[in-house]
């Protein structure tokens, strides 16, 4: 559930009526129940060296029922921020980052701001906005949190909660990337993630279950090119489907995994 401060949209100044309408629409969304709500037993979970949420794949936990020993599947929680704003042409856009080339893992990959929950975080919205502030200097007071999506599972079996927020004053946000974590901050049109344009897919398999990994190519007005894929593309496909109220124009093919009997630090989906 979104934090209490996030639902007070009437007290905030939106840049357009469209954003206000969108906030009201999304605040009514109720994600489906998860397959598991236990977040303890963290010693079983992969700890990426950087503590950030980066994955080669992503899929909705509600679409991937745990059919084998679910009591042993207790992933650690994380959150990412889907920060939407209105572009100059009136289109909805989302803020993305390119990870630092100096990172020891997944360097140079595109991701949403976010990371693992910390003890002082009161909810997923605070995790996502805290991480966004640390990574790209986004002041949490500028973001109106309107809803949460169903959790996704990363390839390292992190439970990642996407948090949707609206940036009501884009000009007030001056990106200040944390050089240790982020090389670049950019934005892309949200609708591209449900269009079958500039998209490729690859089929992968784990424990006999096949699924698709979607890759989206995006070129900015300054001719900079990015590839958005894996967990990030999976989350944005779901967010765009919800915002635009229509399914993607391509097959998602989410898997139904049978998880191993025990999840330990060596468990990775490939």
UniProtKB/TrEMBL annotation:
<keyword id="KW-0464">Manganese</keyword>
<feature type="region of interest" description="Disordered">
    <location>
        <begin position="25"/>
        <end position="44"/>
    </location>
</feature>
<dbReference type="GO" id="GO:0006637">
    <property type="term" value="P:acyl-CoA metabolic process"/>
</dbReference>
<keyword id="KW-0460">Magnesium</keyword>
<dbReference type="Pfam" id="PF00293">
    <property type="entry name" value="NUDIX"/>
</dbReference>
<keyword id="KW-0479">Metal-binding</keyword>
<dbReference type="GO" id="GO:0015938">
    <property type="term" value="P:coenzyme A catabolic process"/>
</dbReference>
<protein>
    <submittedName>
        <fullName>Nudix hydrolase 22</fullName>
    </submittedName>
</protein>
<dbReference type="GO" id="GO:0010945">
    <property type="term" value="F:coenzyme A diphosphatase activity"/>
</dbReference>
<dbReference type="GO" id="GO:0015937">
    <property type="term" value="P:coenzyme A biosynthetic process"/>
</dbReference>
<dbReference type="GO" id="GO:0005737">
    <property type="term" value="C:cytoplasm"/>
</dbReference>
<dbReference type="InterPro" id="IPR045121">
    <property type="entry name" value="CoAse"/>
</dbReference>
<feature type="domain" description="Nudix hydrolase">
    <location>
        <begin position="75"/>
        <end position="232"/>
    </location>
</feature>
<dbReference type="GO" id="GO:0046872">
    <property type="term" value="F:metal ion binding"/>
</dbReference>
<keyword id="KW-0378">Hydrolase</keyword>
<dbReference type="GO" id="GO:0008893">
    <property type="term" value="F:guanosine-3',5'-bis(diphosphate) 3'-diphosphatase activity"/>
</dbReference>
<dbReference type="InterPro" id="IPR015797">
    <property type="entry name" value="NUDIX_hydrolase-like_dom_sf"/>
</dbReference>
<feature type="region of interest" description="Disordered">
    <location>
        <begin position="104"/>
        <end position="134"/>
    </location>
</feature>
<dbReference type="InterPro" id="IPR000086">
    <property type="entry name" value="NUDIX_hydrolase_dom"/>
</dbReference>
């Amino acid at each position: 559930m979104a934090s209490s401060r996030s639902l007070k949209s009437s007290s905030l100044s939106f840049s357009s009526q469209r954003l206000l309408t969108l906030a009201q629409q999304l605040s009514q969304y109720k994600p489906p129940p998860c397959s598991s709500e236990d977040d303890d037993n963290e010693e079983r979970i992969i700890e990426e060296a950087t503590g950030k949420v980066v994955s080669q794949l992503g899929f909705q936990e509600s679409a991937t029922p745990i059919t084998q020993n679910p009591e042993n599947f207790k992933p650690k929680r994380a959150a990412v921020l889907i920060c939407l704003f209105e572009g100059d042409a009136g289109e909805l856009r989302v803020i993305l980052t390119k990870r630092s080339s100096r990172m020891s893992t997944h360097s140079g990959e595109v991701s949403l701001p976010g990371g693992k929950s910390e003890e002082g975080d009161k909810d997923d919205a605070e995790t996502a906005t805290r991480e966004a502030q640390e990574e790209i200097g986004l002041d949490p007071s500028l973001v109106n949190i309107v809803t949460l999506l169903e959790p996704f599972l990363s390839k390292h079996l992190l439970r990642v909660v996407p948090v949707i927020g609206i940036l009501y004053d884009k000009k007030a946000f001056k990106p200040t990337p944390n050089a240790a974590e982020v090389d670049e901050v950019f934005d892309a049109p949200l609708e591209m993630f449900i269009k079958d344009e500039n998209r490729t897919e690859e089929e992968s398999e784990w424990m006999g279950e096949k699924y698709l990994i979607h890759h989206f190519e995006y070129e900015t007005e300054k001719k900079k090119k990015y590839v958005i894929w894996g967990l990030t593309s999976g989350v944005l496909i779901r967010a765009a489907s919800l915002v635009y109220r229509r399914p993607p124009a391509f097959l998602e093919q989410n898997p139904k995994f049978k998880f191993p009997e025990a999840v330990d630090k060596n468990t990775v989906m490939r």
